[in-house]
Amino acid sequence: MVMTMFFIGLLYVVLVGVLLAVAHGSWPLIVLLVGGLFVAQFWFSDSIAAYGMGARQVTREQAPELHGAVDRICALADMEKPKVAIADSDVPNAFATGRSEKTSMVCVTTGLLRRLEPEELDGVLAHEMSHVAHKDVAVMTIASFLGVLAGVITRVALWGGLARGGRGGNNQAGLLIMLIPLVSAVVYAVGFLLTRLLSRYRELSADRGAALLTGRPAALASALTKITGQMGRIPTRDLREAEPYNAFYFVPAFSSGQSMARLFASHPTLEQRLEQLRKIGRELGRP
User: Fold this and answer.
1) Which residues are annotated as a binding site?
2) N or C, which end of the chain has less CB nearby within 10 Å?
3) Residues near 223 by beta carbon (within 8 Å), at least 6 away in sequence
4) What pLDDT digit, counting tens, does each position of 140-189 carry?
5) Residue 42 falls within a domain, yes or no?
């Protein structure tokens, strides 16, 4: 994960360096644009995602069993209790949002609550709490910002360059019009692949954290198998609506089985996750 973040940071340096080299006196505008976009995404992206996924905060009186499960996980992990929410969806899933423990929220769908046994639910909640403890939402927000920035820069460069080119017909301006979108496109493509790689790492890390925290990797493996199997029974329309939020979910709405498609997947394959849990189970079983 550290190596992936290093290369993503290197891409930031390359992209900003190119912009400063070609923009000359416009660097204050570049700094303002980059800073404004970063602050907006860092502070509001998780709230927007939670709203889009239909998360509704619930009290202890409204969902006593769910609150009790979250309390047990927090006691084991010695963590502050996050906000607890439920999303009214038959797609069996869960997700966590928040930049820190104080702003975090753990949400499960009604479809998940109907299908899982208490031990399986504990494993899923521990997985999501691991994301909170590892500050994965903040890490992924920073990592994914590169793609957003590259896309915005490409549009600004094209609009501004075309406007100047239409007035002036300068060869140098025409070269810049071609250079900035090209560099931004390359940075976006490489950043996208690195971000997906980082996402797969953090999912395996959260699985490991949950298995060690609860001491029951088999329960988490059972939840993974059950949820993945149930996905095939969910109407395709519902899965398509959930698909844009795959990066947040415990299990993606659509899994990538082909080797090339795995490069673009936000989650490891079910086989990889189960194999890791089997290894942890063997380690925990040794004297």
Assistant:
1) 127, 131, 203
2) C
3) 116, 120, 121, 123, 124
4) 877 777 667 776 666 666 665 544 554 555 566 566 666 767 777 777 78
5) yes
pLDDT at residue 73 above 70? yes
The residue whose two tokens read 């971000």 is 195
Residue type, 144: S
Cross-sheet strand order for the sheet of 94-97: 55-57, 83-87, 105-109, 94-97
User: Is position 96 within any domain?
Assistant: no
* pTM summary value: 0.80
Tokens of 186: 């390359």
Catalytic positions are 128
Annotated binding-site residues for Zn(2+) read 127, 131, 203
> Does residue 166 form part of some domain?
yes
Which residue range is the domain that position 243 belongs to?
A: 2-20+28-49+120-285
Closest CA to 151 of 189, 186, 188: 188
Q: Which residues have C-beta within 8 Å of that of residue 220, sequence separation ≥ 6?
A: 120, 123, 124, 126, 127, 207, 210, 211, 214, 277
Number of domains in the chain: 1
The answer to whether residue 112 is domain-embedded is: no
Longest dimension (CA), the chain: 78
